[in-house]
Amino acid sequence: MIVSAAFQLFAEHGFDNVTVAAIAERAEVGRTTFFRYFGDKQQVLFADESAETDRMCAHIREKAPRPLGGDLAAAVAAIRESASAARPHIALSPGHSAVLARLLRESTELRSRYLLTRQERALRLAGALTEVGTPENVAVLAAHAAMACELTAMRLAETPDAFPGRLEEAYALMGAPGAVAAS
């Protein structure tokens, strides 16, 4: 309820013009309840980030070939597969994704917070890759390469619907296995 209320308000008024009190009121909860779940209103935007990363890491641990070894392309492919496996569980609706994309374009502060979430994701994914036998240098590079592809797609996608195609383009530019070059 809190996340939905926050995204509605952010869509209507922008991020900076929405207070925690307004979010709590729209969600019909008290401020104390809001702060029981979220440290600040920025956290609402990235509410499912940790759970999504958990699912991606679990997928790598369970499904990646063992030992994955030092093949960078195979490590990047394992991350791509984990993202695809986690995608059906993502809590953000397409409407919320569109609001988030707009807010990230408009706010340097929110982009900074988003980049921190992506950095944490890359570190955790690198850890999962090392657990399945990828040397640390390859695991770290693969995780950051995947993050770079995602950030490139986000920057170039004009709409949230364009994101998957732009992501494929980014992977194709890297020569990642399974990537389809844009026409």
Automatic annotation (TrEMBL):
This is AcrR family transcriptional regulator. The lineage of its organism: Bacteria, Bacillati, Actinomycetota, Actinomycetes, Streptosporangiales. Residues 19-38 bind DNA. It comes from the Bacteria. Transmembrane segments: none annotated. Keywords: DNA-binding, Transcription, Transcription regulation. InterPro entries: DNA-bd_HTH_TetR-type_CS, Homeodomain-like_sf, HTH-type_TetR-like_transc_reg, HTH_TetR. One of its GO terms (molecular function) is transcription cis-regulatory region binding. It comes from Nocardiopsis algeriensis. Residues 1-56 form the HTH tetR-type domain.
